[in-house]
Amino acid sequence: VLVTGTFSSPTFRPDLKGMLTKGLEEGIPKPSEIKKILPGQGTESGELKSLEEKGKDLLKGLPFGR
Length: 66
Prior knowledge:
The chain is of the alpha+beta class. The protein has helices at 16-26, 31-37, 45-60; strands at 2-5, 10-13.
């Protein structure tokens, strides 16, 4: 995170150069790691359903989720 401006009015920005540099140093992820990240890949269907149910329960608690 880059912080610029004065102490009374700071401005915060993401450090895109640092993020890109770190990504290049770590290299390209393995296909097995990518499959874990993609929706529906690398997870069991029961696990995915339980996550969906938890999300629905959280939304029900919000004023617009009724």
